[in-house]
Design goal:
globular, binds S-adenosylmethionine, Uncharacterised_MeTfrase_YrrT, 8 helices, SAM-dependent_MTases_sf, alpha/beta, Rossmann fold, about 40% helix, single chain, methyltransferase, seven-stranded mixed β-sheet, about 210 residues, S-adenosyl-L-methionine
Length: about 210
């Protein structure tokens, strides 16, 4: 990984669930409709499923209920420990979007709030690898912060700064949030067709289907 966020998430793990359920004012809008976003992703996943960036396991719990979640992949040891406590029977691999092992091809690759940890060049490599790991007709379903264009991204940073949200604006400036047109091109180069759905001011779901 060009930038390794593992220490940040090890440190955030104990308070992470409080943040996603609205206790951190700076991140409240980012996690607005959090449970609906997880449900939206879980409802669209089918067949054998792999999840990246499991975190504290809030999406995995939903996926495990249908019995189709094959493996979760998560680089932070502290996040893995919390998710494993919630789901003792789930296999969670120490890995990340560019480093993981699958025993077979799958139907769905899912993730929430994690793909932006890769640079656009890394996203492209990850997408080519997803294409190899998916069966024909398989899907990548990712919810994450993204923006319709650079101008909308810049305005959101400005808005965070005006509100005094220093941690949020530093995060927006230092992580690798994509624009939708860039992400669309990356998926199309990998042989996918895409559909984007807006969930809140920050988060969109990309549903990318691999050609038959
Ligand atoms: C904001 S949390 C999201 C957790 C969970 N998916 C959710 O929706 O609540 C981001 C997670 O992605 C993980 N992560 C960071 N970089 C990653 C990478 N390159 N590949 C996979 N996961 C990564 C972090 O350790 C963290 O657990």
């Amino acid at each position: 990984m060009e930038v390794d966020f593992t220490t940040l998430f090890d440190e955030w793990s104990a308070n992470y669930d409080a943040t996603v359920f609205g206790e951190d004012e700076q991140y409240r809008e980012v996690f607005e409709r959090y449970e609906e976003i997880l449900d939206f992703v879980a409802e669209r996943a089918f067949g054998k499923i792999v999840e990246f960036g499991v975190g504290t396991g809030n999406l995995s719990v939903r996926l495990q209920q249908s019995g189709q979640l094959l493996v979760g992949i998560e680089p932070s040891q502290e996040m893995r420990a919390i998710a494993e406590r919630k789901m003792p029977s789930l296999t969670i691999q120490d890995g990340h979007f560019l480093n993981y092992e699958l025993s077979e091809q799958v139907d769905s690759i899912v993730s929430t709030y994690a793909f932006h940890h890769l640079t656009d060049e890394e996203k492209e490599r990850a997408i080519y690898k997803f294409a190899r790991n998916l069966r024909p007709g398989g899907k990548v379903i990712f919810a994450d912060t993204m923006f319709v264009a650079d101008e909308a991204f810049a305005k959101t940073i400005e808005r965070a700064e005006q509100r005094g949200y220093d941690r949020l604006s530093a995060d927006l400036k230092s992580e690798f949030y994509p624009t939708i047109p860039v992400l669309q091109v990356l998926f199309e180069k990998g042989g996918f067709t895409t559909r984007f759905t807006q969930m809140n001011h920050y988060v969109w779901v990309v549903e990318a289907t691999k050609g038959e």
